[in-house]
Structures are given as structure tokens and as C-alpha cells.
């Protein structure tokens, strides 16, 4: 799969929230450690002024695969990255090499249509 670096994406509609998902494949023996770390991360993220929402999903067929679906009130990916340089994120990022089977895979989503 070709993955465009998160920071290289330009949003076509600056009026809509920044939405992205992050796919993570956790080492089976470290699943609970990662869940503890990501819960602490999301608790802190939810206090950020630009935070809208975050959903954590587990793959129905592979219990080591998780997806974070995040929505942020940011005008661009660069603005998001500029505002996310925090100690708690750095601490979480430092844990990931020991917890994940491979690097996380972030993907920026662009709104095509909305219902409801």
C-alpha cells in the first residue's frame, strides 16, 4: 500500500474538520499495554482545544489491528502537527516501537458527502 506522508496532504475544504484515521498493528503480547497507553493518550487529546472526537476500533478478524478515527478543528494538517507537539504525545510515541508490529499508518480523509 502506498502511503502519502501525513504532513504532505493539502486539504481541499478548509471549512470542514480535519479527519483522519490511524491504523496500528499491535504486538499480541503487548495489546493491553498499548490499550492502556492509547486510552491515556486519548484522555489527554480530548482536552486539546481543537479536539472534536476520536473513536477507537478493533478489527473484527484480527484482534491485533486497531484503528483510531480522529476529527479535529484544524485548518490544515500542518496546523494539526504544529499544535500536537506535546510532552504526552512524545511519551506515547516513544512507547510505540516496543508495542507495535510495524509503524502506524495515518491516512487523511477528505469529505465527499455527508448525510444526517
**Helical residue percent band:** 25-40%
Estimate the mean pLDDT confidence: 89
Principal-axis shape equals: globular
Question: What is the H-and-E element order?
Answer: EHEEHHE
Class, according to the CATH hierarchy?
Alpha Beta
Task: From the alpha carbons, calculate the radius of gyration and give it in angstroms.
Answer: 14 Å
Strand order of the largest sheet: 2-3-1-4
Distance between the termini: 32 Å
> What is the CATH T-level topology?
Alpha-Beta Plaits
What does this molecule look like?
This protein has 116 residues and is α+β, with helices and mostly antiparallel strands. The chain has helices at residues 31-45, 77-83, 87-99, and strands at residues 18-25, 51-58, 65-72, 105-109. It has a single domain, classed as 2-Layer Sandwich (Alpha-Beta Plaits), CATH 3.30.70.100. 30% of the residues lie in helices and 25% in strands. The protein has a 4-stranded antiparallel sheet with strand order 2-3-1-4, with no helix packed on it. A hairpin with a 6-residue loop joins strand 2 (51-58) and strand 3. It starts with 17 loop residues before the first strand and ends in a 7-residue tail after the last strand.
